[in-house]
Design goal:
This protein has 264 residues and is an alpha+beta fold. It has one domain: Peroxisomal Thiolase, Chain A, domain 1. Helices cover 28% and strands 23% of the residues. Strands 3-8-7-6 form a four-stranded mixed beta sheet, with helices on both faces. A two-stranded antiparallel ribbon has the order 1-2. Strand 7 and strand 8 form a beta hairpin. Helix 5 packs across helix 6.
């Protein structure tokens, strides 16, 4: 608060211990705040120090976690009003949450005598594959959007196998998932911050021809919890592209709802 020069009256809350889908829940909170108070501006900050989970062990779960996870941070500015300069943005349209309780022991996080211990079994991709189609149907059930209308995807890259199984379940191509693969290659799995990096890259590649196009996004975590959200691209014809090198990338929300999001 002091470093940012914010007044002590600024309202604050924490979203903790949710793992890779925490950013989606933070966006839900921001969305609700902006719906309740249209003039509100909500800063969502995701900071993940995944290397704290590093375990000096030859067990398969520990080797996978050590190789896959990395540290990362992203920030999202959420507001209910569009930007005055028409900067490219993403509108938060809808959310839906699912649960695959059979996987409660396959993706877990514990504190033990050796620090933070992450469990990520090889069964997780199959659980996600089993539930992802139903999750998508439930997200879109009451929206004027069909699965066939969606050509932009921002999927949390929990691992290569997870991305591949989702492609099989939803009939996606490798190119449909290119932003998720790029983030996984460049940064690894940064827990909750990762999907914000993917959304940043989706927005960075948007052109005026993509204006109004829906974006389907997923994130997953302990439980086994499956989170889905639908966003919409807004690109002013005067703003042809978003520079990936810029420090702030904005994602706008519905005028009556939430959401301006800036990643990294």
């Amino acid at each position: 608060m002091q470093a940012l020069g914010l007044p002590a009256s600024v309202q604050r809350t924490c979203v903790n211990f949710m793992g890779c889908y925490a950013a989606v829940n933070a966006l839900k909170l921001a969305d609700a705040a902006c719906r309740a108070h249209p003039a509100a501006r909500v800063l969502v900050v995701s900071v993940e120090l995944c290397t704290l989970h590093f375990q000096k062990s030859a067990e398969d779960d520990h080797l996978v976690s050590n190789a896959l996870f990395g540290d990362g941070a992203a920030a999202c500015l959420v507001q209910g009003q569009p930007l005055p300069d028409g900067a490219p943005s993403l509108a938060l349209t809808a959310f839906h949450c699912g649960l695959e309780p059979d996987g409660h022991a396959d993706m877990a996080w514990h504190i033990n005598d050796f620090g933070f211990e992450m469990t990520l079994s090889s069964y997780v991709p199959r659980l996600i594959q089993r539930g992802i189609g139903r999750l998508t149907e439930q997200l879109l059930e009451h929206l004027p959007v069909q699965r066939a209308d969606i050509h932009h995807f921002a999927i949390h890259p929990g691992g290569r196998k997870i991305l591949e199984t989702i492609e099989q379940a939803l009939d996606l191509s490798h190119d449909d998932n290119r932003f998720a693969y790029r983030v996984l290659r460049d940064y690894g799995n940064m827990s909750s911050a990762t999907v914000l990096f993917v959304l940043r890259d989706v927005l960075a590649a948007a052109t005026p021809a993509d204006h109004g196009a829906p974006v389907l996004s997923f994130a997953f975590g302990p439980g086994l919890t499956l989170e889905a959200m639908l966003l919409e691209i807004s690109v002013d014809s005067k703003q042809l592209t978003v520079d990936r090198a810029e420090a702030v990338h904005l994602m706008e929300a519905e005028p009556v709802a939430a959401a301006l999001v800036a990643a990294e």
